[in-house]
Amino acid sequence: MMLEFKQLKKSYGGRTVVDISNLQIFAGETIGLVGNNGAGKTTMFRMLLDLIRPDSGEILSKGVNVANTSDWKNYTASYLDEGFLIDYLTPEEYFIFIGSLNNLSIADVNEYLKQYEEFFNGEILSRGKYIRDFSKGNQNKVGIAAALMQKPELLVLDEPFANLDPTTQIRLKSHIKALKYSHKLTTLISSHDLNHVTDVCDRIILLEKGIVIKDFRTDENSLKELEAYFSE
Amino acid sequence: MLSTFLSHQWKDFWRSRNKAGSIAAQILLGFFMLYFLILAIGLGFGMSFIIEKAFPGKNVIETFNGFILYYFLFDLAIRTQMQELPTLSIIPYLHLKINKKTIVNFLNIKSLFSFFNLLPLFIFIPFSIIKIGTTYGALTGLMYIVAILSLTVFNNYLVLYLKRKSINNIAYFGFIIGFVAVFALLDYYQIVSVRAASNAVFVAVANYPYLGLVFTAAAIAIFYINSTYLRSNLYTEELSTKDDKKVSTDYAFLNRFGKVGELAALELKLILRHKRSRGSILMGFAFLAYGFLFYKEPMIAKNQFGMMLFAAIFMTGISVITYGQFMFGWQSTHFDGLLVNKIDFKNFIKAKFLLFTISCTIITLLASFYGFMSYKLLLLHLAAYLYNIGFATVIVLYFATMNYKRLDITKSASFNWQGVGATQWILGFPLLLIPFVIYLPFGFMNKPYWGLIALSIFGLITLLMRNYWINLLVKRFEKQRYKIAEGFRE
C-alpha cells in the first residue's frame, strides 16, 4: 500500500474542509481527484505533503505518518502551484537546484532535460528569462518537469492540465501513462477536466465538502457518470 | 475623468490588502512625515534666526541663496532613490475607451502627490515672504517663490523622466548619486562652490526678478519632455520592466560548503534579483557612514565605548538587522516549495548563518576605515562583530519563526512598510540592548576595555555554541512551519 488516509479531518472557522475516514491508495494506481471548488482537493494534497497540519487523523505514506518524519520526501515529487517554484531563478538554475537536492549532477540534469525538449517545445530552456517572467502555462511545465525529474514513486499534481496548451496536455497524459507501467508510478491528480481525468486515471475519487462521495475504477461509463453527477 | 482616477487611487490605498494589517505602521509613517513637516515649517519660519546662529557674521540672505540650489541638488539624489514611478496603477485603464492624453495627465498629476514636493515649500517659502519680500519688494519675493516652485516641479519630472528612461538600471542611479557626491565634495573642499553659484543665481533674480521665470521655463520644458515620452511609450511592458537577457549564475566560492552552500547561493540570488532586498543591501552600505555621526573625538579620548556601542553594533550587524528582520518572509512566495523538497531544515538554518557570517565579515572589514580615526574603534568593531555573528544572528532567526507575514519583495525597500509586523518592532530590543547590558557594569566601573573583552567573550562563546543554537532553531522551525507556511500563502 502506498498511502493510507485515516480519520483525516481539517476545518477552517468551523467549516469542515476535509473529512476522510478511511482511504487507501495502492502502488501503481493513477488516482483522479475530482470535485467542485472548495471540495478540499488542494487542502488534502497539502496535508499529504505535510504543508498543513490536520486537526485530527493521519496520513501514512508507506506506513509512516508524513508529519513525523520526512522520509516520504525521498520518493515523493509534487507540483501544486507556482508557490512551489523559486521564481527568481532561470529554469536551468531551478532544475539544477532541484537536481542537486536529489544528488543529480549538472550533467545528469542536462541529460535528463534532453528527453523533455519535446515537452518544452523550445519555450523553456535558454530563453534568458527568470521563471517569474514566464506565462503560467510555461511555469506549469517547469514545475511538472522538475517533479518528474526526481524519479518519484509517488507523484502529486494539482490541476496539471490547466493553462497547458493542447499538445502539452496530450503529451503529459501519455507520459504519466507510460511511467505507470515502466516505473510503477503512483499518481494523484486533481482536475476539473473530466475528460482528462477519465482518460488518464484508473481510479476516480469524487470529493464534496471534504467527504469522499464516490470512489470507483474507471471504465467506459465513468465520464457519463461524472457528467451526470456534476450537472445535477 | 481625472477625478474618477483619483477616487480609484484613494480606494486603492484604503482597500489594499497589506494596508489593513499594518495600519499601525501607516500611522507611524504618518508621524515621521509630520515630524519632518514640522521641522520644515520650523526651519522655514526660523530661517533668519537659525542662519544667524549657525553662521554668525554672515549675510543672512547670501547664506539662504547659497542653500537653495544645494538643497535641490540633494533633493535630486534622494528622489532618485526614493520616489516611486506611478506606472503600474494605469494597467486596468489602458484597454478602455480613454484617451491616452488623459492617462498621461493622470500620471503627471499623481506624481505631484509626493512628500518630496511638499517639503521645499515649507522650508523656503516662509523666508521668501518674510525676508526677501520685505527686503527687495513683493515682486522679488514672488519670483523667489515662483523659482522654488519651479525647481520643485523640475526635479519631480526630471527624476521621473530619467527613471523611466533607465528602468532597473542601477549603474545609472549610482551615476546620479556620484554626480551629487562629487559636487558636494568639490564644494566641501572649496574647489567649486555650489553655494557661491547658487548665491550668484539668486542675486541675479533679486536684481532682475523676471529671471525667476527661467526656472519656470525649465520646469515646463521637462514636463513636456516627460509627457511626450510617456505618450509615445505608454506600454506597461516598456514602462515597468527592462527586458534584458537573464543568465544563470554560479557562485563558486559557496560550493565548498556543500548543500549549505547551495542554499546560501540560492538566497544570494534572491537578494540580488529583487528590488527590496537589493535596496536593503545598499542601505547597509549607506549606514557605514553612521560612525561619522556617532563617533566623536572626546568620546574616543575618554574611552566611552558605551556611547558608541549602538552605532558599532548597528554598522557591523546591518545585514543581520535589515535582512534578518523579515526572515523567512523573503522566501514567502516559494516557501511551500522549500518545505516539500528534500531540504534538510538543519542545512536551511545553517545557510542563513553562513550568509550572515559572510556579510557581517565583509561589512566589518569595510568599516575598518574608522581605524584611521582611532585604533580603539577597531577593537569596538571587533567586539560588536563577534556579538553580531555569535548572538544577534540567533535572536534574529529565533524571531523569524514567529513571523507569518508574506513579504512582497518586488517593491523598493525605502518607506516600504509591507510585511512589517510586531516581530520587527520587538526584535530590536533584545538585539540592541543585550550588548549594553553586558558592557554597562564595566562602563560604570570605568573599565571600558574589560567591557569590550566581556562582549567579545560573550560573542565567542555564543559563536562556539552555534551547533546548539542550530538544533534549537530547527526544533522551533519544525514546530512553527505550518503556521509560517499558512501565513505566507495569503
| Biggest interface and residues each | A-B, 33 and 26 residues
Strand content of chain B: under 5%
Radius of gyration of chain A using CA atoms only: 18 Å
- Give the number of domains of chain B: 2
Structural class of chain B: mainly alpha
- Computed structural class of chain A: alpha/beta
Helix tally of chain A? 8
Biggest sheet descriptor of chain B = none
Low-confidence stretches of chain A: none
Overall mean confidence score, pLDDT of chain B: 84
Oligomeric status: heterodimer
Number of helices of chain B: 26
- The helicity of chain A comes to 25-40%
Shape designation of chain B: globular
Keywords:
heterodimer, A: 232 residues, alpha/beta, 6-stranded mixed β-sheet, 4-stranded antiparallel β-sheet, 8 helices, 34% helix, B: 490 residues, mainly alpha, 2 domains, 26 helices, globular
Question: What report would you give on this structure?
Answer:
The complex is a heterodimer of chains A (232) and B (490). Chain A has a domain at 84-151. Chain A is built from 8 helices and 10 strands. Chain A has helices at 41-48, 91-101, 106-114, 117-120, 136-149, 166-183, 194-200, 222-230, and strands spanning 3-12, 15-25, 30-34, 56-61, 64-65, 76-79, 154-158, 186-190, 203-208, 211-217. In chain A, strands 6-7-8-3-9-10 form a 6-stranded mixed β-sheet, with helices on both faces. In chain A, a hairpin with a 2-residue loop joins strand 9 (203-208) and strand 10. Chain A is globular and about 45 Å long. The two termini of chain B are 34 Å apart. With 490 residues, chain B is an all-alpha fold. Chain B folds into 2 domains: 2-7 and 22-240, no CATH class; 257-489, no CATH class. Chain B has helices spanning 2-15, 17-21, 23-45, 47-54, 60-82, 91-94, 100-112, 115-136, 138-165, 170-188, 194-207, 213-232, 236-240, 252-255, 258-272, 275-286, 290-294, 297-301, 305-316, 318-324, 335-340, 345-366, 375-400, 422-444, 448-464, 466-489. Chain B is globular, with a radius of gyration of 26 Å. Helix content of chain B is 77%, strand content 0%. In chain B, helix 5 runs antiparallel to helix 8, helix 7 (100-112) crosses helix 12 and helix 20 (318-324) crosses helix 22 (345-366).
